[in-house]
Write a structure and sequence with these properties.
There is one protein chain. This protein has 158 residues and is of the alpha/beta class. The protein is 42% helix and 10% strand. Strand 2 (88-93), helix 4 (102-108) and strand 3 (112-114) form a beta-alpha-beta unit. Helix 1 (4-23) runs antiparallel to helix 2 and helix 2 (30-47) crosses helix 3. It is globular. The model has no long low-confidence stretch (mean pLDDT 85).
Length: 158
């Protein structure tokens, strides 16, 4: 598995850089989303993760959706970004904003960082309303973090 780290590092560096640079010109985050989808596909292919998606025929192109997912593994985000053919934005924990460049970039491309201890519900709902009004879809991980034991955890406030 260690031999995969260089390839994954290259994907992350190249696509991350492209996404960051594009965010200077594309505040909607559409190209950044393309980078995330491409990165996700490369991660899944490189690590040999096969995904079977059912039910996409129930979704209508051009509509907006709120996707609610459990958070069982580190593959959740790559699987969702690769599998769902929509412009997706995520509500993420505010602590991601402390990572240099990452937090700035997430917010710049339309994702929301939320302080789980003091969620600003009015701000969250206002952001989600603007997001869906602009034809973007939302991913919510109500557990707020990955599962330590594989079971669905309690939902976080906010």
């Amino acid at each position: 598995m260690l031999f995969l780290i260089p390839a994954i590092s290259v994907y992350t560096l190249v696509l991350g850089t492209l996404s960051i640079v594009s965010s200077l010109f594309d505040r909607r985050g559409f190209f950044g989303h393309w980078c995330a989808r491409t990165w996700s596909r490369l991660i899944l292919v490189t690590t040999g993760v096969r995904v079977e998606v059912t039910g996409l025929e129930q979704l209508q192109p051009g509509r907006t959706y709120v996707f609610v997912s459990n958070h069982q593994s580190i593959y959740d985000i790559p699987i969702l970004f690769h599998s769902l053919p929509f412009q997706l934005r995520i509500i993420a924990k505010a602590s991601l904003g402390r990572f240099p460049i990452l937090g700035w970039h997430l917010q710049r491309t339309g994702h929301m960082l939320v302080d789980r201890r003091r969620p600003d519900r009015a701000r969250i709902f206002s952001w989600a309303s603007r997001l869906t009004a602009n034809g973007l879809c939302l991913i919510v991980f109500p557990e707020g973090t990955r599962s330590a034991d594989g079971r669905v955890g309690g939902f976080k406030p906010g």
